[in-house]
Amino acid sequence: MKLNALLTTVILAAPALAVPRGIAERMRARLSHPHQESNAGANIVSTSKNSTVEYSTNWTGAARKSAPPGANYTAVTATFNVPEPTAGPNANGMEGASAWVGIDGDTAGQAILQTGVDFTVDNGQRQYHAWYEWYPDYAHDFTMDVSAGDTIVAMVHSTSPSSGVAIVENKSNGQSATKTLNAPAPTATLVGENAEWIVEDFEQKGKLVDLVNFGTVKFTGCAAEAGGSTYGVSDATIMELVANGQTHSKVQTQGDETMIVKYI
Ligand SMILES: *[C@@H]1O[C@H](CO)[C@@H](O)[C@H](O)[C@H]1NC(C)=O
Ligand SMILES: *[C@@H]1O[C@H](CO)[C@@H](O)[C@H](O)[C@H]1NC(C)=O
Ligand SMILES: *[C@@H]1O[C@H](CO)[C@@H](O)[C@H](O)[C@H]1NC(C)=O
Ligand SMILES: CC(=O)N[C@H]1CO[C@H](CO)[C@@H](O)[C@@H]1O
């Protein structure tokens, strides 16, 4: 209900600031991937009590891995802060990560409808981009400016298996960007099996970026809608990101709507 209200408010009230794919974003060649499971974390002891924990090479956060009986996920939303990334002591080129919400891409790996914000640091220079993506297409940037400390409301909503809308709103000033998009291929349809709230190590220009120290991303108002009911993160599967044999995240849920993802 809350989710529908937000959707209606944002879609009806928002001046459409999104632009079709432009040169800048094509050059960025920025791509989010489906979740890839890692065995590397199997011996890492979880401190999360109520949730199943899984290890991923790409994702940290929470994912609902199956739709409720007789329904599919059609909308996912959350509010999160844009963190200021810190370059590692041995940074070699760009480091980055991305916070987003999405439908599918976990157990249903053929498509993801997702939207969020990238934060990168390259040679001391920080950049932030708000984007939307229907995997396996690349991410496309919204024209909206994003800065560290902004509070962003992100939402994806599927209007059919092959069409949907991505919305990013700056809660600080109420400005929002909306993009209506279609499945980039006949095989890239949504089934609504997964809903997720993720911080990701993404790929750019054909290579994975080095994961940046993103500090903390706090997701609040986490909600997914399926068949008129709302679902959150308290009983979702928690994912920790493992790279080179090391865990780089710590996820904590607080109640059904809040999740804190810390870089470690
Ligand atoms: C686990 O569930 C209990 C009861 O629902 C709740 O009080 C507690 O906060 C939860 N713990 C975590 C780590 O989410
Ligand atoms: C959920 O999605 C599946 C796969 O696309 C479809 O077969 C099913 O009819 C959908 N269920 C509902 C309730 O829409
Ligand atoms: C969000 O709003 C704040 C306050 O007006 C502003 O400083 C910031 O640049 C805005 N960011 C975006 C994404 O528009
Ligand atoms: C860090 C890492 O291993 N990332 C993986 C993300 O997923 C893609 C495919 O889905 C892999 O190619 C990457 O290696």
TrEMBL record:
Q: Which GO terms describe its biological process?
A: proteolysis
Supply the InterPro entries for this chain. ConA-like_dom_sf, Peptidase_G1, Peptidase_G1_sf
Asked if Endoplasmic reticulum is a keyword of the record, the answer is no
Question: Do the record's keywords include Signal?
Answer: yes
Which domain of life does this protein belong to?
Answer: Eukaryota
Q: Where is the active site?
A: 200 (proton acceptor)
Q: Which GO terms describe its molecular function?
A: glutamic-type endopeptidase activity
Where does the secretion signal sit in this chain? 1-18
**Keywords of this entry:** Signal
Report the PANTHER family cross-referenced here: ASPERGILLOPEPSIN, PUTAITVE (AFU_ORTHOLOGUE AFUA_7G01200), PUTATIVE (AFU_ORTHOLOGUE AFUA_3G02970)-RELATED
Q: What is this protein called?
A: Peptidase A4 family
